């Protein structure tokens, strides 16, 4: 049974007057318990908006979200409250997401005030100690304030805060992007251990592809709010089908200098267009070297390229296929 599915979910933000634009445009995805889905794409492509919509911090404009097979829009108050506890999020800047006046122990305990108000002081204390231990923070940090500990330690506090409620899904929005590479690896290892121990589903949002390979089972590549490619992580890394994915991959650092020299870099010219006024047809065509006449006319549908893998690109679509039937 899947943990989470999104079907054609859009998130629109208002513009002046009565207009609006889609920051997330008809995104479909699914996640199983214990699975990690990476969501990647350049800054502004809608990753945070999608993450926030999943957690319920930003309303969905259309589309269906299900949790363990049930449409969440049918949930009553109690079920919605319970869902809030099951889906947690951590952000890029751990220091900014912690209250500067709260000690580490207070910050980690705080979610219990809302969800376990009847818990005794002693039980809370035990839970906090257990959580600090789980995220490998020394007991001595319990009484420190956020500014007195390192960035990596702050992120561990944010993880402990999220995990103390026993979530089933953790959305990590650029959660390691601000950290040094060595600290990134430690946090990734920690998340993987927590995942193994609790069967946690992870949605791992990142603008770069290098971090996600080691951690993720599947990946969805976003461009201007749309999924342009999705599939098992190894398939997408070794046989990227979309020109955008190939460009993102060519920007990934390769540790081996000989392999790095042998590889052709695909440079993406300029910035993505504004989602307020997207190009007609395929939204990537204005930056695509292989763009054809049809690309300006019609948006390519997601088409299967192999087991669990899909791409939305006219180069991959036999001309006999049309529109929505490409999905099947
Ligand atoms: P990412 O996380 O991939 O950088 P975001 O989800 O933050 O992308 O932003 C997607 C698009 O939505 C961008 O064009 C951004 O400017 C716009 N945007 C983000 N948040 C808001 C908001 N609260 N109101 C209006 N527009 C927003
Ligand atoms: Mg973001």
Give the CA-CA distance, first to last residue. Answer: 21 Å
Provide the domain count: 1
Q: Tell me the major beta sheet.
A: 8 strands, mixed
> Radius of gyration, Cα only, in angstroms?
21 Å
Strand order of the largest sheet: 6-7-8-3-9-10-12-11
Topology as a string of helices (H) and strands (E): EEEHEEHEHHHEHEHEEHHHHEE
Average residue pLDDT: 92
Question: What is the name of the CATH superfamily?
Answer: P-loop containing nucleotide triphosphate hydrolases
The fold-level CATH name is Rossmann fold
**Strand portion:** 15-25%
| Computed structural class | alpha/beta
Count of individual beta strands? 12
In the CATH hierarchy, what is the architecture at level 2? 3-Layer(aba) Sandwich
The CATH class: Alpha Beta
Supply the number of helical segments: 11
Bound molecules: adenosine-5'-diphosphate, magnesium ion
Which helices and strands occur, and which strands form pairs?
Elements: E1 4-14, E2 20-31, E3 36-40, H1 47-55, E4 62-67, E5 70-71, H2 77-86, E6 87-90, H3 104-115, H4 121-134, H5 151-163, E7 169-173, H6 181-198, E8 201-206, H7 210-215, E9 218-223, E10 226-232, H8 233-238, H9 243-250, H10 257-262, H11 293-297, E11 303-306, E12 309-311
Parallel strand pairs: 3-8, 3-9, 6-7, 7-8
Antiparallel strand pairs: 1-2, 1-4, 4-5, 9-10, 10-12, 11-12
The protein binds adenosine-5'-diphosphate (ADP) and magnesium ion.
């Amino acid at each position: 049974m899947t943990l989470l599915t999104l079907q054609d979910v859009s998130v629109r933000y208002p513009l002046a007057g009565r207009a609006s634009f889609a920051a997330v445009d008809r995104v479909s995805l699914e996640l199983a318990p214990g699975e990690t889905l990476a969501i990647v794409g350049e800054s502004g492509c809608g990753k945070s908006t999608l993450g926030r919509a999943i957690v319920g911090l930003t309303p969905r404009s259309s589309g269906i979200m299900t949790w363990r097979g049930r449409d969440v829009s049918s949930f009553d108050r109690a079920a919605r409250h319970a869902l809030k506890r099951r889906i947690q999020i951590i952000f890029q800047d751990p220091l900014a997401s912690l209250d500067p006046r709260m000690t580490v122990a207070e910050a980690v305990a705080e979610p219990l005030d809302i969800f376990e108000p009847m818990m005794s002081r002693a039980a809370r204390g035990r839970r906090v100690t257990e959580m600090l231990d789980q995220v490998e923070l020394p007991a001595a940090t319990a009484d420190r304030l956020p500014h007195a500990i390192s960035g990596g330690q702050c992120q561990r506090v944010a993880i402990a805060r999220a995990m103390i409620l026993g979530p089933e899904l953790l959305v990590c929005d650029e959660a390691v992007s601000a950290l040094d590479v060595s600290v990134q690896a430690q946090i990734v290892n920690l998340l993987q251990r927590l995942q193994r121990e609790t069967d946690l589903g992870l949605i791992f949002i990142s603008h770069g592809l290098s971090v996600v390979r080691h951690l993720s089972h599947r990946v969805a590549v976003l461009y201007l709010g749309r999924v342009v490619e999705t599939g098992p992580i190894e398939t997408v890394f070794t046989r990227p089908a979309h020109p955008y994915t190939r460009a993102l991959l060519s920007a990934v650092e390769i540790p081996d200098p000989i392999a790095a020299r042998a590889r052709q870099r695909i440079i993406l010219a300029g910035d993505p267009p504004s989602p307020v006024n997207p190009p007609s047809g395929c939204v990537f065509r204005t930056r695509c070297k292989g763009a054809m006449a049809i690309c300006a006319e019609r948006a390519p549908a997601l088409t299967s390229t192999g087991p669990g893998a899909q791409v939305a690109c006219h180069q991959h679509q036999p001309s006999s296929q049309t529109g929505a039937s490409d999905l099947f």
